[in-house]
Amino acid sequence: MELRLAREDDRETILKIYDDGSKKLKSLGLDQWQGKDKPNLDNFKELIANKNIFVLEDDGKVVSTVIIYDNDIDYENNLDGTWQSPKPYVALHRIGTLESERKKGYGRKIIEMSEFYARENNFKSVRIDTHRGNKTMQGLLKSLNYKYVGLVYLSGKNERFAFEKEL
Fold it and tell me: Mean pLDDT, to the nearest integer, of 114-134?
């Protein structure tokens, strides 16, 4: 199993992961990843060039994806709460797994491998947010020892639960 930088030839699989995630969240009655807020790859070339978008590959097959930023303007300016760790940190976004590969531990694995990436690159913590109703992700984060730190407002308006894990 390998966490690697995404390549242009991963585009269709990543879009499928986003589509699968959108459908799953909709089936749970959540507005996360719906409509104009559904993840897309309009900035894919930039994400690749900046080394922000990764895929989890297992036995030669891309099964999961994550975007890793070394900062997040919403996390800097729109948190109703307090981050526990000083900078530098990484922010994880758009974590998703192919529908056909769910329930195999890939969500846990991609977060753990992102933490390893952060440690290797001397970051102090990992930050992530999720929808208030996304109990699956909240449970996963708690099981990985992430601490709830408050509410973050994406683009100043979309409320999300913010979590952090000090490394």
Answer: 97
